[in-house]
Structure formats: structure tokens, C-alpha cells
Design goal:
Length: 259
């Protein structure tokens, strides 16, 4: 099943999508399997699997230090893919990989796309690759049925939003703030309008991400979007082995009445 179909199945049940972000290999590569299987058991809709990178673009301090920890464990794109492949049969939740372009080019685009599919990757986010340059990897991804997810920022002009919304695959990653990843206390007030416009130009699910860190945030964004992506809060909770916080965030997507 494609990433989009997976998410639409969640939405058809009346739930909203919950997508946790994890830094692969934070705590060592051996943590990857138990973490993914436990999140899957909690009923998350997909998992964004981040590849640590020496030169990240949009990462705030929490994700950045998680990346440094993973790198100190010797984690690489190749090792993550090999590890995921080793428990492929246990994975039922769609995986969305977040990696920068350089590791993909170093891997070899066709080899990466093939190996990623064999590892259970259904979608890909490449934050430092502008949509205009996505032709470099898009054909290889298409061949392996891997959706290339586009990020839409708050500052994109309407024409560009429309273009990105049409080009995005799997879902649209709607960034909720101007700036970097990380927990936030509050959000801009006109977000409801922004999401309404985004929903209007998109035919695929629209998920909100950046700064979402409490059950209340999750509920609020689920009223205006099809679901949420939570990164920093999940990374911190995993570090502290605090599964009740994660469970509360997931549960907050299950009692949503649309506006
Ligand atoms: O950490 P936050 O604020 O909850 O946001 C999710 C984000 O961390 C995750 O999706 C992500 C991590 N690194 C990225 C780089 C670009 C875009 C998105 C990301």
C-alpha cells in the first residue's frame, strides 16, 4: 500500500494521523527495532525516520544533539537501511525517511531507492532539495513506489504553495512556524486560515509539523489539518524512556471533531 493510501485509511476511520519523528540510532542502532515496533504498537500512522547528518538545515537543538549522539554511535544511511531490512517482516507501519541529499548521492540514487523500498520506506523527505531540483531523484523513487514529500512553509507565496501541493506525494508537510524544529509554547494566530487554503489546493493529506509538543497542540492542529508530525518532543521522551508522554500525544489524535 502506498503512503497516501495508508494515511487515507486512518482518516477514513475518523481518526487523524499521528507521525512521530525519530532520530535513527540515537542510543545506538540496536534501539531502532524496539523503538519502531513499540511506536507501531501504540497505533501511530507512520514513522518519520531521520538519518543523522553532520550539516543539518532546519534542525533545532533537540534534533541536532540527537543527530550528534547517533553520529557518535557510527550511524550512517547504509547502516540504517540494513538494520530496517533486518526486521522488515515485522514492520506494518509505513516509514518515511528524512535525509539530506548528499548521503543519497553518495549511496547512489538507484541503489538507494531500491534498498529503501526493500527496507519498508514508503516516503522520503529531503529538506535541502528544492522541489525544482527533485528531478534528480524523482524517477528512481517513482520506480520503487516511494513518495517524495514536499515541505510547504508559511512564507511560500500562494502560487508556490499551489505548485508544491500539486507536486507533493504521500502527504503535504505543512510547516507551522518560521524557523527551526523544536518545542514551542505558541503559534501564529492565522494558522487556521493558512491550513484552510492549503487544504483547498491539495488532493492529498496535509500534516502539520514543527513545534507541536503537547496533547493540546495535537488536538488544535488536528482540527485544522489531517494530522501532525511530532519530532523534538518524541526524541526527548525516547531519550528518557517516557512512553506515557508518547501515548498521550498519540491518543490526542483519536478524539477529534473537525471544525
Ligand atoms: O521537532 P519538531 O519541532 O516537533 O518538528 C518535527 C521535525 O523535527 C522533523 O519532522 C524533522 C527533523 N529534521 C527535519 C528537517 C527538516 C524538516 C523536518 C524535520
Amino acid at each position: 500500500m502506498t503512503l497516501q493510501a495508508h494515511l487515507e485509511k486512518v482518516l477514513a476511520k475518523g481518526d487523524k494521523a499521528f507521525v512521530p519523528y525519530i532520530m535513527a540510532g540515537d542510543g545506538g542502532l540496536a534501539t531502532l527495532k524496539p523503538t519502531i515496533l513499540k511506536l507501531q504498537q501504540l497505533g501511530v500512522s507512520a514513522i518519520e525516520v531521520g538519518i543523522p547528518f553532520s550539516d543539518p538545515v532546519a534542525d533545532g537543538p533537540t534534533i541536532e544533539t540527537a543527530g550528534e549522539r547517533a553520529l557518535s554511535h557510527g550511524v550512517t544511511l547504509k547502516k540504517v537501511i540494513a538494520q530496517l531490512t533486518s526486521f522488515y517482516d515485522d514492520i506494518t507501519v509505513p516509514l518515511v525517511m528524512m535525509t539530506y541529499l548528499n548521503p543519497i548521492l553518495a549511496y547512489g540514487i538507484d541503489a538507494f531507492a531500491l534498498d529503501a523500498r526493500l527496507a519498508g520506506i514508503k516516503g522520503l523527505i529531503v529538506p535541502d532539495m528544492p522541489y525544482e531540483e527533485s528531478d534528480v531523484i524523482h524517477p528512481a523513487l517513482k520506480q520503487q513506489n516511494i513518495a517524495l514529500v514536499q515541505l510547504v512553509s508559511l512564507t511560500s507565496p500562494p502560487e508556490r504553495v499551489k505548485k508544491l501541493a500539486e507536486a507533493s506525494e504521500g502527504f503535504i508537510y505543512a510547516v507551522t512556524v518560521n524557523g527551526i524544529t523544536g518545542e514551542r509554547a505558541s503559534f501564529a494566530s492565522q494558522l487556521a486560515e493558512h491550513f484552510a487554503e492549503l487544504k483547498q489546493v491539495s488532493s492529498i493529506p496535509v500534516l502539520a509539523g514543527f513545534g507541536i509538543s503537547t496533547p493540546e497542540h495535537v488536538e488544535n492542529f488536528c482540527k485544522i489539518a489531517d494530522g501532525v508530525i511530532v519530532g523534538s518532543k518524541i526524541v526527548t521522551a525516547l531519550l528518557e524512556d517516557d512512553w506515557s508522554t508518547i501515548e498521550q500525544l498519540v491518543q490526542a489524535t483519536k478524539k477529534i471533531e473537525a471544525l
